[in-house]
Specification:
Porin; 178 residues; single chain; 8 strands; mainly beta; elongated; eight-stranded antiparallel beta barrel
């Protein structure tokens, strides 16, 4: 005779019970229509960098979820153009953004960005060399906030002077959210 044990293992009982209690606890909260979208803010940033025979322009629209008065997180798109020396870059991609305001006037930020870079090296007289690749950036920043506008500076900790679209690891920014 074959005997089949239908009882669940005891080591799985506690996590299942805990999960059920969490779900029933969340179900007691009434969901107000539009509550999520009322905390979403739209805007983005502009970046402008200058260097020795170098230029960089960045336009980055984004949307963030303002979890509370201190913390926000969201996503963004990015389009960049850069030129330095005989090299031209165009890049596009996306980013994950976190913002932290320890006090209303100060905003700390972290942004993980992944860009698809199209690079053209002007080689005289032999023509040009084209290169396409992905370039990551992890920018940590600090700025002064006044209502919806933040002006500051950020630092790309993954900056690679040979591959980065940015002329320098340091980059000023203006960020606006409505």
């Amino acid at each position: 005779m074959i005997r089949i044990n239908c009882s669940p293992p005891k080591k799985f009982l506690l996590p299942v019970l805990f999960g059920f209690m969490c779900l029933t606890g969340f179900s007691q909260r009434q969901n107000v229509p539009g509550e999520f979208w009322s905390k979403v803010r739209y805007g983005g940033g502009l970046g402008l960098g200058f260097g020795n025979n170098a230029f960089n322009l960045s336009v980055a629209p984004s949307a963030i979820y303002q979890a509370n008065e201190y913390f926000a997180a969201g996503i963004g798109l990015s389009v960049n153009y850069a030129k330095f020396g005989g090299t031209k870059f165009t890049a596009y991609g996306g980013s994950l953004i976190t913002l932290f305001n320890p006090i209303p006037a100060i905003q700390l930020s972290a942004e993980l960005e992944q860009l698809r870079v199209n690079r053209t090296l002007e080689l005289i007289p032999s023509g040009s060399l084209k290169d396409n690749y992905w370039s990551p950036a992890l920018m940590l920043g600090a700025g002064y906030s006044n209502r919806n506008v933040t002006v500051g500076i950020r630092y790309d900790v993954l900056h690679d002077s040979d591959k980065s679209i940015y002329t320098d690891a340091w980059m000023p920014f203006v960020r606006v959210y409505f």
